[in-house]
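Example 9 (inverse folding). The structure is encoded as follows.
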């Protein structure tokens, strides 16, 4: 099978399209024929070696940790999946990933693919969807009637977070560029701030929660718009706990793992018309370097998807 791997850490030149054996599966795993995968910032951060201390991957390593595809083999201990089932997953980051024609995944990490969307769209959901859910539903515990500021509302995570928050009954303020205003408004944002022409600290009234997807100065400035008792949740770096305490607010940091129960809930939202993935670009597996370049630019709209093969 074809797979995109790295044999050493490095820049995009380290990406290699290799012909390797189809993986064997353990008794608790399924073998999935990959129809689509997606590109996330964690992919090129792993490629560069930024996470090598935290997750010591053996090399060569197949990258990619989003997938939608079809089960073609099941392990002896697996009873909930059969050959031919359409599944999607965010597999274990510590294992070989999904930039490949086949991937072995623990059965417990898979969920049934939403019925009303394509594999390409479904591949855009797992990592970003779990991230948005665990940040806003589990960590921030957003309630109906609360106000939430979502940074980078047109991004892969932000675009799903806006929809989740609206489904919860929250008022959503989102930052983005003017060219993406219409998209973000179509997702449900009640107020859109063009970060290029306005400082959000000048135009956003106090909020109950901030979803930081950018880090740096944006995270630092976000303390200014939080109500007393509010919370800032980041997926970039842990917000300073001492500063949160001094301001009378809370902080949280989210780094997700596989979460099939959340994927099942996201699939139900998709099939009921309450959630839709935003696909900004599609690439073939052989064009992975261009896909990584777009992700690294920080200018991608929605998700970047790799089309791998037919179901």
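The amino acid assigned to each position is listed next.
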């Amino acid at each position: 099978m074809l797979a995109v791997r790295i044999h050493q850490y490095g820049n995009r030149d380290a990406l290699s399209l290799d012909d390797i054996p189809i993986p064997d599966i353990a008794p608790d795993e399924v073998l999935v024929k990959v129809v689509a995968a997606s590109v996330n910032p964690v992919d090129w951060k792993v490629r560069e070696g930024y996470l090598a201390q935290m997750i010591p991957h053996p090399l060569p390593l197949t990258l990619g940790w989003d997938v939608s595809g079809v089960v073609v083999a099941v392990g002896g201990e697996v009873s909930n999946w059969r050959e031919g089932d359409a599944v999607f997953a965010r597999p274990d980051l510590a294992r070989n990933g999904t930039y490949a024609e086949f991937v072995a995944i623990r059965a417990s990490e898979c969920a049934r693919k939403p019925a009303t969307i394509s594999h390409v769209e479904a591949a855009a959901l797992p990592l970003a969807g779990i991230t948005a859910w665990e940040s806003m539903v589990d960590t921030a515990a957003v309630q109906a009637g609360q106000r939430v500021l979502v940074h980078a509302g047109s991004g892969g995570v932000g675009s799903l977070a806006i929809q989740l928050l609206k489904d919860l009954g929250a008022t959503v303020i989102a930052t983005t560029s003017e060219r993406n205003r219409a998209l973000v408004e179509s997702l449900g944002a009640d107020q859109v701030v063009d970060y290029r022409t306005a400082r959000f600290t000048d135009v956003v009234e106090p909020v109950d929660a901030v979803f930081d997807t950018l880090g740096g100065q944006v995270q630092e400035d976000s303390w200014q718009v939080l109500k007393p008792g509010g919370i800032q949740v980041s997926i970039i770096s842990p917000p300073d706990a001492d500063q949160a305490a001094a301001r009378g607010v809370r902080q949280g940091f989210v780094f997700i793992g596989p979460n099939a129960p959340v994927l099942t809930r996201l699939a139900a939202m998709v099939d009921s018309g309450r959630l839709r993935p935003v696909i900004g670009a599609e690439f073939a597996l052989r064009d992975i370097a261009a896909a990584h370049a777009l992700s690294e630019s920080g200018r991608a709209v929605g998700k970047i998807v790799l089309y791998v093969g037919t179901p």
